[in-house]
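Friendly challenge for the regulars: who can give me the structure tokens for this chain first? No prize, just bragging rights.
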Amino acid sequence: MSIHESPQGDSRPAAYPSHDAAGQQLAATGFNLEFIADFGRRRFWLILISVLFMGGVGFAYFMAVPASYSATATLQLDPRKFQLFQQPGNLGDQGIANAPLESQLEALKSENLALKVIDELHLADDPEFGKAPAVPVISNLMEKAAAVPIISNYIKTRGPESQSESWRTRNALRIFDKRYTVKQRGVYLIDINFESENSERAAQIANAIAKEYITGQIDAEYEVTRRGSKWLEGRITELRDQVAAAEKAVIDYKAKNKIVDAGNGRLLTEQQLADLNTQLALARAKTSDMRARLDRINAALDDPAGNGFINAAGGAGDGAGNQLITNLRTQYLNLAAREAEWSEKYGPSHLAVVNVRNSMRGIRASILDELQRVRESYKGDYDSANEAQQLIENQLHQAITQSQVSNEAQVVLRNLETSAQNYKALYDNFLKRYTEAIEQQSFPYTEARLLTKATPPIKRSYQKSLLIVAMTPLVGLFFGIGLGALRDFLDRGFRTSGQIESLLGLRCLALIPLQKKPRNKAKGQPEPISGDSQTRLILNDPGPSSSVVEQPFSRFAEAIRTIKFAADLQGAATVNKVIGITSAVPNEGKSTIAAALARSIAQFGGRVILVDCDLRNPSLSRDLAPRATAGIVEAHYEKVSLDEAVWKEPSLNMTFLPVFSPAPIAHSSEILASSAMKKFFEKLRCTYDYVVVDLPPLAPLVDVRGTTHLVDSYLLIVDWGRTYTTVVQHALSRAPGVYEKILGVALNKVDMKALSLYDGNRARYYHNKAYARYGYTD
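First reply, four minutes later:
Bragging rights claimed.
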């Protein structure tokens, strides 16, 4: 079961995730407020100093740079649209539709407009625009610098160029642009603002800008109108000639194709065709009538002896309008009635009846003669009407033929007339535009007008200075945050147990606080002797490792006990008697931790031996047994017995096996990796309950890699905030055998107060007053 270091120094199963891991998960999923809070506490003073510094700079600027007067003139843009070739409109006005309000703003900020104002008001000769506003302190420094001969000569050599008219104008323009602002207000309003040290000058320049802009608009529109009028004049002449040519083409084509207008919107051929159709209808009706009358007379003459003759003669007489036939028919009918009456009364053979019959025969003969005469007359009328009809039909056929030819010519004629009408309409339109242009040229129109004239302001404007003062602390805040982030980026050391677990994949067993060196004893008292070569006794070391005995309730002692407890739990599962203490690089405190761990084990009655295996740099031997004449090398080679090489702690059941090395041992790795050394350590296993081994660092040497057959587990010591994470990762990657046997990592020399700045959420665990109830002290 994996063990994690707890804030109080005890252990907990790996099944419970550490708060650092939870914080990393929170950071991976979104906004990590805990990290921001830790960063703020960690870099508080840096950020505060940066904010105060930049705030001081802003305040110094506010006090050094005098406030200026700000005058504002307001322009209004007329939303009416005037365009050259669209109705309704006047010539030359580009209007807001063609020039959006943004373009008007850019025109107001144009360099050309500013130069006109500078030239009109002679701002290049104005001392306020002849040089940048001088801060009194800077002005004094410049005057003193000008007194230096070299600088004075340089100014003299550069003087003519700097005092040229072009230079002064450009310098005035530079200052003018800094003090001139244009801002839109509402839909069609533009505020022209200018700042100056003189209130009247500020109002004068603001009004001059508005005046020059309006004048420029009028001049531009006048120029457009003048050019448009000139162009329209030439275009009208061309259109006049085109209209005349088009109309002449219509007349010539009509004459060529004999197309005559009847005056009522119809051609003459169409009018003739309509008249002939009417005449033909009348002629056909007349011919039909004559034919009918002739047929009736012929019917009467075809049966002169029948009774139907009289009826037919009556109809023929009525149809011809012959009064004689009508009278004869009447007489005949009267005689016929009389004959019938007398025949019935006197008999058919009566003389009177016979005379009546003779009279009837005479009348019948007269009717027949008259009918024959009428028939000849009707026949002549019928022939005349028929000839007239044929003549009209021939004329109609000729008119239809002529109409077809005219209709074909009419297509071309319509095109010619349409072209002439278009030219005429275009000519009229251009002529109207030309008239408007002439009128507008005498009184041009501009969409801009001065709505509010700038007046000299009464009070100075501190807006820009206050804005700078307000912005400088924010700049300082961002600058301080940037510096803090840079310092965090450059801080490549381990600061929290979560970093150990996430970057190395190892358990952080303990956070060992930084131990201060003990003060020297009172004057006159002799310094304690580290050891006696005759008795080989280790005297109480006043160093940090002895604090586990002298201060058993300290945070340091609790952290060492945490390491021992983790080693005991590891030993419950596997054999863990030999514990190797190592580090990635030198000076991380591994020897101190090894001595403290051995003393802590011995304090509880365990048989423990502290072995110094740092053969090239036996710092632990120099501290605990400086007068040793034999050590691990001699004992392992059996030059001396183990009892003759070890040193003992008089007050604790702890034994120390030093290194006796008058000169550095070159082949230390071969000694540690040898089988003889393994046999020697087997002997130590049998003799002692715990074997604490002080090993060399991983990074510069290969010695630790050769001890994997000797050591059951390793404790990696990492110096808090000093050892680079990349160095530790590289050292462990080069020693896979060591990495597999690492019991855990101990962060050494931890500044417990500063630790809360990196792990603020657990700060209440590091500093809890309730711990004093259990004797817990720092």
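Residues 64-229+451-463 form one domain. The radius of gyration is 66 Å. Your move, everyone else.
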